[in-house]
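Z., the sequence and structure:
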Amino acid sequence: TQSVMYMGVSDMFNVFARIDGKNVICGKIPKDSVGGGTAALSMGMDLFLGHKGEGTSKADHAVDELADVLKKLEAGESVSTSERAATVASNSTGSEIKFFMKQKAISLKPKFDIFDEKETPVYHIEGDLPRLNFGIQKNGTEVVKLKKKLVAVMPEYTIVIGGSEIGQIKKKLKLTAPELVGTINGKELKIDGDLFGFNFDIRVGGTLIGHIDTAQTIWQDCYRIVVYDESYQDIMVTLTIICDNVVDSNKN
């Protein structure tokens, strides 16, 4: 079937759009399309190891962006750029910001270190023994406190900045995938997740502000935090701790 093909979206994938009756279908397809052996092997390893490679994640995001544009066109809207691209363009650097979170392997208390792409440590997080309170430090200064309610049917979390509660988050009861909802500075927060592979889209006030997934890096397997709106950097790091906590609870 004839398709519009966007070439070289990542090292492994192209992205396509095609017409099927009254529907427009978009997706990703291996670059080595004859059999797709290399990409298929890579995808299989990603599934087995529970993480997405950089190329897989980039292609998935590209498909999401294309779907966003197609939906707006179908609704009769005029579109010049996708939602994610517009958010990223508003940053001071004009690009997304990436962090990588590595959990310390042996510790009575939960401890996390977060690095930028140059391997420079930026954030340090420490929790108490019952894992109910966390302090998020940036360059040695505490910028966020995270509190978890002990007596709740579903986990509930509070984000505190400068002594004021700016966010409340709780888990919704779903059988197939964890979903976290709440508010950030009075705006609706929604976190859609994939329980089988640590993979979350973060929206505040209906706007996509970031993405959290797993990646294989120089530090082995770790969490990748992609920030689309730089004003939410500290909050994105805090939400990663919440997502990690919820996924661990589901596994247990």
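The first helix runs from residue 37 to 49. The helical segments are 37-49, 54-74, 83-89, 233-251.

Let me know what you think.
H.
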